Amino acid sequence: MDETLLENLLHWLRIPSISTGGGDPAEIERAAQFVVDRVREAGGEGDLVRIGAGNPIAVCELRAQREDAPTVLLYGHYDVQSPEPLGDWDSPPFEPEIRDGRLYARGASDDKGNVIPVLHAACELARAGELPVHVRVVIEGEEEVGGASFSAWTKADTRGADCAIVFDSAMEDEQTPAICLGLRGIVAALVEVRTQPRELHSGLYGGSVLNAAHVLHKAVGRLLPDDLGRVRDELREGVADPSAAERASWAALRPGEAVLEEVGATPLHPGAGAEYRVRNGAEPSAELNWFEAGEARTIVPATARAYVTVRLAPGQRSERIREVVEGLLREQLPQGAQMTIGWHLGDPALFPPEEPAIRIAAAAIERATGMAPVFVRSGGSIPAVADLAAKGIPVIVSGFALAQDRIHAPNESYRLASLELGARAGRELLLALADLPRG
Amino acid sequence: MDETLLENLLHWLRIPSISTGGGDPAEIERAAQFVVDRVREAGGEGDLVRIGAGNPIAVCELRAQREDAPTVLLYGHYDVQSPEPLGDWDSPPFEPEIRDGRLYARGASDDKGNVIPVLHAACELARAGELPVHVRVVIEGEEEVGGASFSAWTKADTRGADCAIVFDSAMEDEQTPAICLGLRGIVAALVEVRTQPRELHSGLYGGSVLNAAHVLHKAVGRLLPDDLGRVRDELREGVADPSAAERASWAALRPGEAVLEEVGATPLHPGAGAEYRVRNGAEPSAELNWFEAGEARTIVPATARAYVTVRLAPGQRSERIREVVEGLLREQLPQGAQMTIGWHLGDPALFPPEEPAIRIAAAAIERATGMAPVFVRSGGSIPAVADLAAKGIPVIVSGFALAQDRIHAPNESYRLASLELGARAGRELLLALADLPRG
Fold it and tell me: What Pfam family is a match, any one (chains A, B) (predicted)?
């Protein structure tokens, strides 16, 4: 283990850079400044960039020896989720502790521990005069709150990069590294329905007046999937079928039944586990995440609120599906009912395995870890990756997290072995990307 | 105004007999004992009856001069809802104050002020040796919390009565008294669905695992009415059509549109107001009163809860409709989802206008107030009335409350004019019921 890497990580983890509420803006800034300081110490340059009232982004650069080298953008986030409930931690969340080969702290896996090995490798290579690519380090502080700063920065950035590295993802299992080729997009709707100025007595008025819970129940019902979990055709617009080769590669992965069992999930139906890789990687899905209306007594609710999310498969466009979702929600709104909707959108992203950056990355990770990475897709959404993909920048989404790391939960941790794998993979990756064709 | 009546009411209103939480059991008992004391002072007898851990029921009797007189049961409730939010009261809720011909206090209208004139009339008649009917005074303390004590007492009571008076109801308008012939029954279901041991990430698992909110959404959807507010046929089983005469009498009442407008309601559809009397008095209805699941973020909820109430029209049986409701809720429950249901049932009640007690009451109220009472039905449920009706006791449901009394809300009040009308009506009623045929 590289002692400097571990010391740097411990230092970074001690900064409580909480973005999800209850955090201190000064600590947010310290965690961002830490990145700038590391890069400057290694001979690079950089500074904090602020977009509006958002948390600062550390935007830095380590230049390659060769001026015409390709440019690699290293993305990560220094912000963490709040550590509550504090009583459930075996050691304080911002006093990192090593026990049995694991480093316990909030952010240990998500994302400080996952991203710092690549940052460290870039700094060490630069210091040694061996950095073969220009590395633009862009580490943001609003990932956990879906903030808009990074998206705005990417859109405004005219320099771009020849590829990006995002280490915010997981291994397939404790031995097998993975590269995530696809991420789903998202259309999230926060819907509110209002029907009356106030609640009414359900015996005296129910059945004659508009019940906000009924109106919203019906509206969100238009978005929910059938009993097999399949969403209606309008919500499937644009879905790109995965190639036969990619489907075949999923068959070699851990069975979907095992993925569900690992988290104690109840399958949607008997066949849902077997279809997991296709469903989660290449199909849209829709969930009612939240519904809240009325009280458990005899009233007619006057307001009702829900949060519904539609995940988009690669090929779909979030702005188009937003229109479809809004149409379905408003389609049969009765006279006298008001509906307001707040939106959050993210496009899907998909990188072909033949993409030069992906090919180079796969070979580099295999050299570093001794195992060829498997190609996976994730059903989740990483808006930053979609933002980069939208600019035509291929993104290497990888990392050494594991399901056991308990990210976002008490006793979050990261294996020292994962840190080591990350350091080796980060170094090989930066060296190998020198061969990347320049865009 | 009878000064003793007013003083007695003020005394009773000063006792904070709150049953809905935050109340003091000693005050509950004082309010019940107040009834016993009034009856004893008038030469009657009585005591507090306790059923299990329930609030005491004041069970008393004033005997008529003539031993073979009919027996009248006077029902009411001394418990009140908690007065929160206290800051919204213009005067303290348990320090009654008279302003502009209205008496302001919690319980002023519901039910202390509404019931005490009849109690007072019975005591005064007994004191004067002029009481022509035996009066069983049964005033309970769990009406506001749907407690089971009165129901258990009624079922166990072998003496019964020839008719009952329940003054817990309202006038048709400020001038017109009303007798409520029908009350709807209720089947209330508190439903909980559980699908997973814990919440899951909606991107990683949504679409492959059971979402508790989806399961409950679908289940309660089976109970909800169509866009015209009509419930499915299975829930209409047993509905008794009102007679042509009764329908015709509703046409003479205030238009349903005005009833809805009075509370600022948004009609279910353009024709809902015109149909109000039939819908509310003679049709079943169903409401989703409460739905709660998940959080407004990207999770798959593991539990979801709802409160659904079906109001039953006269003719329907609550135990039978409970079976239908349970069948609908459980009908398509997917494998792996658990559903638990808590029930609260109440039968509907209906008294024909030709019923001797009703005919006598209508004439007596007209003599007392100068206005013939109109016959109405209420869409609400008074379980005590259903309990009495189930024993074959005809119930005169009336009273002098008004929609403006703000029952259950801050600044509850009762008109002094209503108190006066109640006293006159109570006296005439007791005198006239001497003619009641004995059961």
Answer: Peptidase_M20
